[in-house]
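USER:
Before I trust my own judgement here, I would like a peer's view. Write it directly below this note and I will take it from there.

ASSISTANT:
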Amino acid sequence: MREQWTALTDEQLLAQCEVDTYRASGPGGQKRNKTSSAVRLRHKPSSLLVIAEESRSQHENKAKALRRLRRALYLQLRCELTPEQLQPEKLQTAPELAAARDPQGRLYVSARDPRFWPAVAVVLDVLLATQGRLSEAAALLGTSTANLGDFLQSDDKVHEQVNRLRGAFGHKPLR
């Protein structure tokens, strides 16, 4: 389902959401306290919830919330991979990973790059299949354990999710 949801346009994805607007509290002056500019999106099919309340503009907050929802879909929804999908030849040529590799074949793309999150989703799916074992996942993905570790630590939310997954299998968290 993740692939279907992430392929949707913003309008289509928003149509699947329950949208709440409310007044955000905190600093920002009189305007922030008088307008309902904060946005909460609840993606009904997946039950994911995201909020954006840092801007005084409801439109900006809605756009930020949509970006956060897409990121959450990649980050929190796992796909169980079949033994056929776990073949190194298939994984190493997966379009999501191919787009995130540098000319030497290392996973190297910034978290600000739109190719980052689809690659993270595939890597987390492989980590789930290998029960959180980084070296085994790196071998399947055709990269080094150090490169995979660096890639997973390049974003705090990804690092947190990896440690949650590893903890579920009794492994020590990545530093």
Remarks:
- Residues 88-168 form one domain.
